[in-house]
């Protein structure tokens, strides 16, 4: 479980995050939603330690990440898998080398063990025969799947996905969503997904947190988000006419 | 003020860079790859520049000797001294800044803007150490060989043009290039080579590492890296010459 306690982050005079208190439960897909520029990515970067918060704590199983020494942080980071918005695959390496990279750096596995693990992870994301391809030769959806495969290569306890559906067609988006949900339940890990895709919220949002102008305004399940009367959440969720139709049909007004 | 800020940030980056590598096996592998990419791949351009450099120095020296009191072997002597002391270590370093430095800066800058560096950090890898350290070590190891080769090719280029065009005889040129040779001159050139190898890898790496934005910023970082590295090399060239030769 990951918990944030009174988390604040400022860049100069601008306060980007204000008093974020929340819990991301293990075995669940925890979604952070909000408009562009609301502070979702900054919050995630604070949680994984890419940015130091101005004030507050990020607790991994009760231990404050930002108070840990270098070695302790490294141990936590080995347990983190991260799917970046653009994939962030190493473009000088093949798909196989990308997946093998963390295994080379942190394990003493034999070449065969590493290859088996690579093939297992690729198989898990329904990708076969792409081992020798370079990231530039993959489609957007394939890159995301390779990104997920790399994120799970080290058997992480925490999985972060930054806008996993951006730039994907609806069918591939659903495939990626389902994959994230399946992996979360299968490996009983803490998954945090940043998104502003309402389809994802309705598909996999077991615990949804809404951020507005750097503040946590609302938290609940995907069912509760359809019923809330919080003005900012309603404006965000029902911004599209498609979602307005769903609300009307469900008589949730 | 901005200059001091850059010096401070560069120093801090180097302190993070010069740490024990995460995996020695991977580190060794990367050094070999970088020696190939930064060094051996530059061999053709170094060879072409060196041969013409030696040839031009020989022609210019030869055509400027009017007095009959100056022996012809002076041409060989001047070509050797110019190539060893200045042309090979300094001019080739400036050429390498353009080729290798811009490539380092744009490679690392692109990795920064496409979040590949963040990916390394999240995995628990010291990204500066992983990306920059092997490049510096590779350049420091391979550049002395490249520059030595450049010296040999430069002097050979001078020989070819001197003898081939009949400017002076082969024996005069051969005598000239052996005349009053001091090993210290070569050591001086090698000291400069090692220092310049550090500059032409670390400064572009610094500008690439702190790139933010998109492709335009990557291009700007690369240009700034080449300009700053070239100026630093020229300043250090002057300081090292003052320190080591006078």
TrEMBL record, chain A:
Coiled coil: none annotated. Residues 2-238 form the ABC transporter domain. One of its GO terms (molecular function) is ATP hydrolysis activity. Transmembrane segments: none annotated. SMART domains: AAA. It holds the Pfam family ABC_tran. The keyword Nucleus does not apply. Keywords: ATP-binding, Nucleotide-binding, Transport. The keyword Transmembrane helix does not apply. It comes from the Bacteria. This is ATP-binding cassette domain-containing protein. It comes from Salibacter halophilus.
UniProtKB/TrEMBL annotation, chain B:
The chain crosses the membrane at residues 38-59, 79-98, 119-141, 147-168, 189-209, 221-240. Keywords: Membrane, Transmembrane, Transmembrane helix. It comes from Salibacter halophilus. The keyword Cell division does not apply. This is ABC transporter permease. It holds the Pfam family MlaE. One of its GO terms (molecular function) is phospholipid transporter activity. InterPro entries: Permease_MalE. One of its GO terms (cellular component) is ATP-binding cassette (ABC) transporter complex. It comes from the Bacteria.
